[in-house]
Amino acid sequence: MIRDDWEVVVVDCASTDRSVASVREHYPSVRVLELDQNVGYGAGNNEGAALVSGEYLLLLNPDAWPVGDAIDRLATFLDLHPRAAVVGPRLLSPDGILQPSVRGFPTPWRLATEYFFLSWLAPRTQFLNAFYAANFDHRSHREAEFVAGAAVLIRRQSFNEVGGFDPAFFMFDEEVDLCHRLRDVGWTVEFVPEAEFIHVGGASTRAVRSNMYREQLRSHLRFIAKHEGPASAANARLLLLWSMRLRALIFVGERRVVSRDAARWLAARDVASLLAAVPGGTSDYA
Questions:
Q1: Contact, 249 vs 200, CB < 8 A?
Q2: I need a surface site. Which of 5, 39, 152, 189 has the fewest CB within 10 A?
Q3: Percent over 70 (pLDDT), the chain
């Protein structure tokens, strides 16, 4: 149900199905912004945010939806906490299983603990599992480094203050970078489990898993290059390269193929070239 006091914008990044026509047919009050190319998730959200005037911005993936009064619960939290910039709900799969949505910022060490399986040794410790927030308790409200962008409510004032999403992040880590910049200027990021959303997860990426996996690695490198510098990003590339080679030896089936392809991609270029390439371009992945 769409309330009369909501400004709803659907941003369509050059889709080729009937989704735009379907929205216009079933939800005539919704504004549809049709872009002539896929500019990426963050840039698309920037375009949509510019068209509305509300105090809060609800950013929602196409495969996510609120449970009950979840949106009101998030808005009430922002009303009561004036230094909170972003609030994330508890995410559930359609079958009711929790989707952990609080993570830690990627650093070379945190990537090492994840991609070399070190987190398996002590998953509840910050030292070896800060990348996944050390078994974060998703049953109670807590401040977070960042919350997954599948469903978040953002204070417009804070969003505008930092210039919205960085469009350089085509896919993955765009919300990570946004939360990092917000925290840098004194805002907080909060997890509010009293609000729940259903999130299918991965619905648009399963068919092109190898490409999406490389995009995730590229975004990790972009984040580290931006916030820790090119030398740290160069070290992270080598770390990821050797971890992908290890995974290609250990895994079987599709996971072996994905890891092997990622290793070849990481080995073919330095960090600057990887970040400069057009995401999804044939030459980038060759």
A1: no
A2: 5
A3: 94
Contact 282, 221 (CB under 8 A): no
d(CA 261, CA 255): 10
Q: In 29-38, which positions are buried (b, 16+ CB within 10 angstroms) versus exposed (e)? A: eeeeeeeeeb
52's tokens: 């509305």
> What sign results for the dihedral spanned by CA atoms 138, 196, 115, 39?
negative
Which residue blocks in 3-140 are alpha helix, DSSP H?
A: 19-26, 41-49, 70-80, 108-115, 126-129
Which tokens go with 87? 């609030």
Q: What is the mean pLDDT of residues 144-165?
A: 96
Residues forming a β-bridge with 99: 91
- Alpha helices by DSSP H, the chain: 19-26, 41-49, 70-80, 108-115, 126-129, 156-161, 174-184, 209-228, 230-250, 253-268, 271-276, 282-285
Q: What is the CA radius of gyration of the chain?
A: 19
Taking the C-alpha atoms of residue 269 and residue 121, their distance in angstroms, rounded to an integer, is 32
Q: Can you read off the two tokens belonging to residue 280? A: 């999804």
Q: Which amino acid is at 91?
A: L
Cα atoms in the 13 Å half-sphere on the side-chain side of 121? 10
CA separation for the pair 265, 270 (Å, rounded)? 10
The whole-model pTM stands at 0.91
For 219-277, write each residue's pLDDT tens digit. 999 999 999 999 999 999 999 999 999 999 999 999 999 999 999 999 999 999 999 98
